[in-house]
Amino acid sequence: MLHKKILVVDDDPYIREILATQLSRLHYRTAVAADGEEAVAAFKKEKPDLILMDLLMPRLDGLGATQKIRASERKGARVPILFLTAREGSQNKLSSIISGGDDFVAKPVTFQELAGRVEEALRRAKSRKKTSP
Question: What's the sign of the alpha-carbon dihedral 54, 59, 63, 68?
């Protein structure tokens, strides 16, 4: 049984394919986007339960896309956004949080770490929904 939908946003088609395959093994449905502009459009169309967002992409980077997504969300309907990037560093982590990201995961990421981070983010989002008025 497939359940939650995850939007995978990365400008590298190989990484999008690997992530979508790994997530499908965990019984998630996936949608993909190749840059930040596509991510914003896919967010509105696909209504994902979680977004895996690359940091550096053409046209609109992950920070800008996250800000646009956050601005378009209904009050109290915050979708978890996990940044996946090869660019580690405290400045990148801080920027991702300021833009509205919920977590920051360095690439390469193991299957087990990805599964754990996704499950934890979905669990936190579910508990936020239960406690919001």
Answer: negative
Q: What is the pTM of this model?
A: 0.90
Question: What is the end-to-end Cα distance of the chain in Å, rounded?
Answer: 31
Distance CA 109, CA 125 (A): 22
Alpha-helix residue ranges (DSSP H) falling in the chain = 13-25, 36-46, 62-72, 90-99, 111-131
Domain 5-131 is in which class?
Answer: alpha beta
pLDDT in tens, 62-100: 999 999 999 999 877 899 999 988 766 666 666 777 778
Residue 119 burial (CB count, 10 A): 13
The domain spans of the chain are 5-131
**Amino acid code (one letter) for 120:** E
Of the candidates 45, 48, 52, 49, the one whose C-alpha atom is nearest the C-alpha of residue 22 is 52
